[in-house]
Amino acid sequence: MRDRRKKHLEERLAAVESVLFSPISDDRNFSTAVQKPEYLDLAGCFGNGNPLMLEIGCGKGAFICESAKRNPDVNYIAVEKVGNVLVTACERALAEGIRNILFIKTDAHMLPKYIPDHCVERIYLNFSCPYPKNRYENRRLTYDAFFPIYDRLLTADGEIHQKTDNMHFFEYSLAQYPKHGYLLKNISLDLHNSDFEGNIVTEYERRFSQFGPIYRLEAYKKR
Questions:
Q1: Strands of 215-221's sheet, edge to edge?
Q2: What does the pLDDT look like over 77-129, one tens digit per residue?
Q3: Domain-located, residue 185
């Protein structure tokens, strides 16, 4: 269910601009837009050259904020295209004094336009929409068209970490990674009843894990 539009959303987004990048591109066609990169000055944004990690679909920011607090020597980019949700994540980061997160309001397709090639050490796909109907397969974040984006963003030894509560989407994703040259490790079919340590629970995960298992995997490129 989509959240009701927040009151004073534009004013709230303006108030968090110190941690939020909201690009406006004249070209809405991602295939041509990414051919004219407008790379962020990451060293300038963060004030350092620390390792960079990326969450695509950060929701209200529980995962990314907790990750950033636990790892102050890592920089994080959190992407969310829905401003109504993203504003809460930005406000959370500011309220908690977290300085190693940059939020970007954009679609995943547009990331190569703003993030330099091969600088992301880890991509998190946490509870992405599974788009269960076949006609929407091309919207799934493990659909074929997204892997060239991940390949372009990730470092040579970069990884993708994925969590979902949707068994069919997980099975679909398990088949997709090898097609695109990725190996899999640390596969869990019931994360919360496994011996995996260090799991950071998302808002969605906290709400829905009571209804069934959480699935998790890590993917990395063949070297």
A1: 20-21, 101-104, 75-79, 52-56, 120-126, 154-164, 215-221, 182-188
A2: 999 999 999 999 999 999 999 999 999 999 999 999 999 999 999 999 999 99
A3: yes
